[in-house]
Design goal:
It is built from eight helices and five strands; from the N terminus they run ββααααβααββαα. By secondary structure, the protein is an alpha+beta fold.
């Protein structure tokens, strides 16, 4: 699950073998009482009481900042991942190395980063050929295709419908 921190950042826990990591997590989270609690003592109990456990973990994570949690979780060798902001993702070394983004010359905004096509074909490379439409750019065309006359479209525009 993902949990918010006190400074409105998010952290994802990924403890697939939770029985192995549970004691260390409880210690790191300064909640040793949870380790042997009957509702959370093993994976089956944690699954049965997942909603309650998530609520408790949300409260725990809200007590410290993102930086504090990254230090605590890393120091205790727990499996976790930061939930990055969109800007952080565009600056991520691995995302850049994997060619996840492409620079695009937008006619209005200048150079912008776009998601690259995730499909990589050896003999038919994919490319971005055109920009995404602006808000309302194709409204008239779509309404005409739906059978509206130019007079009806003009009236809708004058009445603030579109």
């Amino acid at each position: 699950n993902i949990y918010p921190t006190s400074d409105n950042r998010w952290i994802m826990l990924g403890m697939t073998n939770s029985q192995h990591y549970w004691p260390g997590f409880c210690s790191a989270a300064e909640r040793p009482d949870l380790e042997d609690h009957p509702k959370f003592v093993n994976q089956e109990a944690r699954s049965e009481n997942a909603a309650e456990l998530v609520s408790i973990l949300e409260e725990i994570f809200l007590k410290k900042t993102y930086a504090q949690w990254t230090d605590i979780l890393s120091r205790n060798k727990l499996i976790w991942s930061p939930v990055k902001t969109p800007l952080e993702v565009t600056q991520d070394e691995q995302a850049i190395a994997n060619d996840f983004f492409v620079e695009w010359d937008h006619p209005t905004y200048g150079k912008i980063k776009l998601l690259n096509n995730p499909i990589k074909l050896s003999e038919t490379p994919a490319e971005n050929r055109c920009k995404a439409p602006e808000l309302g750019e194709h409204t008239d065309q779509i309404l005409e295709e739906l059978g509206y006359s130019q007079e009806q479209i003009t009236r809708m525009r004058e009445e603030g419908i579109i």
